[in-house]
Predict the structure.
Amino acid sequence: MSEPVKVVLKSGKDQSVRRRHPWVFSGAIKKIYGQPEEGGLVDVYDNKDEKLGTGHYQDGSIAVRLLSLGQGEIGHDFWQGMIRKAWHHRTREGVYAPGITNVFRLVNAEGDGLPGLIIDYYNGAAVIQVHSSGMFRNLDTIVEALRSLEGLPVDTIYHKSKNTLHEKPGIKPVDELLFGSRTEGEVLEYGHAFRVNWERGQKTGFFIDQRENRRLLQTYAKGRDVLNMFCFSGGFSVYALSGGANRVDSVDSSGHAIDLTRENVEMNFPGSDKHEAMATDAFKYLQEVDGKYDLIILDPPAFAKHQRVLNNALQGYKRLNQRAIEGIRKGGLLFTFSCSQAVSKENFRKSVFAASANTGRNVQVLHQVSQPVDHPFSIYHPEGEYLKGMVLKVE
C-alpha cells in the first residue's frame, strides 16, 4: 500500500488548524510529499512532524478542507456517522415537522463538519450541492448514507453542482438525478405551501435560510403596505399576506421568479386581490416608491462572492438601503439582508449606518438576525455566518 500524501505546513502556519479552522490555504504549505490527487485525501502535518488532521486536497487557494483533526480516519463509517449526526441535530431541534415544515437544510458544509457539502431536503427529495472536488468524488458514498437514514423518507436525490464546482481532470460536474425521478415538488414551511423546482431554481431551489426571518416578518405585516424586492419565489410575500398585510407588491428582474411568486401566492391565497408581482429592475423601481410602502424587504443576491469586490459590494448595499430608507413612510419597517459570505456582519452594519446617516432620518434597530438552526456555523469558521440581516424602524 502506498504511503498517504503528506502536506507539511510552514512554521507558524499550524496555528489556524490548531484553532480548528477547517481550511488550509496554499500559501501556508511548505512542502508536499507524494502526488496529491484532485479531491483525494491528504494528511496535514506541522513543521515538527506532528499530524494535525486529514482532509480533501484541491488545486486552488483553499488547498485542503479538513474533515478530521488529529488521528481520525476517513472511511465508510465516517460518512455514515457525520450525515447521521447532522440529521439527529435537525430532529432534536424540531426542524422537520411533517404536515407543518418538510423543507430544511440537512447538511451545512463546515457547520456540520463536512466542508464543501450542502444537502437540502424538499419533502422527500434530497438535493446535493458540492463546492469541493473531494465531495464530488464521494457522491456515491453520500448517496448511500442519505438512503440509509432512519426516519427521513428519501424518494429522490438530485445532484446540482454544475455552477458551484469547476471542471478539472476527473471532475466533470453536471446537474442530474442520482436516484428517483422528480425535479420539482410541493413543500410546506410553517404550513405555507411552496412549489420548488430544484432543477431550474436558484441555489438548490428555495431560500431555506430565510425561514425564521419570514416568520418574523409575518408578525409585523398586519395592516401594512409591503414591498418585497428581489422576491425570487415570493416567500416573504406569502408570509406578509398570511400576517394580514393590506397589500403586497413583489418585484424581481427575472420573469421566471415572478411566475413562481404568482404561483406560490395563488396556492396559499387563491384569487387574492392584495398581491401584484412585477418583473422589473429593482434599483429603478425603488426610485419611485416615495411614501408608497410602510414595510420593505431587501433581500438581494450576493453582491460580493470574493474579497476583491468587497468595496463595490458595500457601496451597493449602501445605495440600495439609502434609497429604501429615503422612500419608506414615517414609522415604516425595513427588513434588510446580505447573503454575501465576503461581507462581515460589521461591514454590512456599517453600510446600513452610512445609508441611514445620508438620509438624515432617525433609524432604530429592532432586530439583528442571521441564519436558522439548520444552517449552523462553527465558531472557529466565522466565514460560515454568511446571512446577515436587520429589521429597522424609520421615523
The chain has ten helices and 20 strands. The chain has three domains: 6-69, 76-189, 207-394. The chain has a mean pLDDT of 95.
